[in-house]
Automatic annotation (TrEMBL):
Domain of life according to the entry: Bacteria
Record-linked NCBIfam families: ygfZ_signature (TIGR03317)
Lineage: Bacteria, Pseudomonadati, Pseudomonadota, Gammaproteobacteria, Pasteurellales
Family annotation (InterPro entries): GcvT/YgfZ_C, YgfZ/GCV_T_CS, YgfZ/GcvT, YgfZ_barrel
Organism in which the protein naturally occurs: Gallibacterium genomosp. 1
Protein's GO biological process: iron-sulfur cluster assembly
Domain tRNA-modifying protein YgfZ-like beta-barrel: 210-276
UniProt name for this protein: Global regulator
């Protein structure tokens, strides 16, 4: 992936710090916070007691007492409300950071920032290297670093990498496995012990309770998409509404969709958004159930 230097104006950073930060987050999040190395990051989720995802974010661990959550902004009100509700007896604080956020491919990264470290911090910048099918960097700074308006390229990159572009439209609707989080980085730990929603998430793994997965659909034209709406799948006797659109990207004259569907949907099934609309190809889900 080359040529990416995108401003991420629709993302924000919440800092969690305090002597109880690691212990508190370990009992809240789907990932194993304790086993994370300092100066590392992973995708992670915070769920409600029924195991439904309330917030999905990149968690950056600087130390056992300092963490950053990188959210899509629409998630923030409910995400913070849920975290603070469980934090009343813990010595932790939540602070929204006033930072510019940008995403870079390595070829567009300023030369003075290129490094092999996963998380690098200077006086006024923090750089996070994300290892994915297409690697990229997240830069957090007090001054703006990226001038390009490349939001669609950024969204497309996440879709190709299989990382959910999760917004408030999907809060409280899906368990983590329906978004393929069990296959992404260290987003879910099945061995760390109890956390909010853990019983449902474990049941989905060990008893096969989850029937959904997130898929990518592609059409060779640009058309309007409504996040949270359904798609139509072709059957022998017509079309039927199914699934939920998580997000989309318009990139290089194509429309790319992230859609939660029944995980057993036949690969050759045609999809569309509306009558006389573009026909979408279902891409093979590269994640194998274990």
């Amino acid at each position: 992936m080359n040529g990416l230097a995108a401003k991420l104006d629709n993302y924000c950073v919440i800092e969690i710090n305090g002597i109880d930060s690691q212990k508190f987050l370990q009992g809240q999040l789907t990932c194993d916070v304790v086993s994370m190395a300092e100066n590392s990051s992973t995708l992670a989720a915070h769920c409600d007691p029924k195991g439904k995802v309330i917030s999905l974010f990149r968690l950056i661990k600087f130390s056992a007492q300092q963490f950053w959550f990188v959210f899509e902004k629409s998630l923030l009100p409910l995400a913070l409300l849920q975290l603070k509700k469980y934090a009343v007896f813990s010595k932790v604080t939540f602070v929204e950071k006033n930072l510019h956020i940008a995403a870079f491919s390595e070829d567009c990264l300023p030369n003075d920032l290129i490094t092999d470290a996963e998380v690098t911090t200077t006086a006024d910048k923090t750089l996070v290297r994300v290892n994915a099918e297409n690697d990229f960097y997240l830069l957090f700074s007090e001054s703006e670093q990226a001038q390009a308006e490349q939001a669609e390229q950024w969204k497309w990159l996440n879709i190709v990498n299989g990382e959910p572009l999760f917004t408030a439209m999907a809060q409280g609707e899906f368990i983590p496995q329906a978004l393929n989080l069990q296959h992404l980085e260290q987003a879910i730990s099945f061995t760390k012990g109890c956390y909010i929603g853990q019983e449902t998430i474990a049941r989905a793994k060990y008893r096969g309770a989850n029937k959904l997965a997130m898929f990518t659909l592609v059409a060779d034209e640009i058309e309007a998409v409504e996040i949270g709406s359904s798609v139509q799948m072709a059957l022998e006797n017509g079309w039927r509404k199914t699934g939920t659109i998580i997000n989309f990207a318009h990139y290089q004259q194509q429309t790319w969709l992230q859609v939660v569907l029944n995980k057993d949907v036949p690969l050759e099934t045609p999809f569309r958004l509306k009558e006389d609309g573009a026909v979408y190809q279902l891409l093979e889900n590269r994640f194998e159930e274990q």
